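Hey, sorry to bother you again with one of my protein questions. There's a protein on my desk that I can't quite get my head around. No rush at all, and the record is pasted right below.
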Amino acid sequence: MSERKFNDITYPVPGADTAVSILRPGAKFSLNQKKCIILEDPENRETPTEQEIEDEITREKKIWDHYSYERDRSANFPLWFDQLDMLYHDIKNGNLENGKWIQAIDAVKESFPKPEGAAPE
């Protein structure tokens, strides 16, 4: 199962492998173009249907889209060593309220705002 983590949040990376792992936790399986073959399942459950897999992927995509701001921010924040340099100069200049560092961080956060409401289930 593929997942992404940031802060205390873990969310699925959409895909058939993730979908089957969520639909049949603990099962060993093989995938061939979304056709699932259960190789071993300690609970002897039926193989998920293609529709069940598609529905799960759709659910995962909604969650993935909700957290797009996090991935966009990560790609656009200044590099950590540049942030430290900005912060150092802002501290030395006594300008923590409106210095270069806070302006750079605010610009990224404003460009990629958090969505309102809770993440989809």
In short: DSSP finds five helices and four strands in the chain.
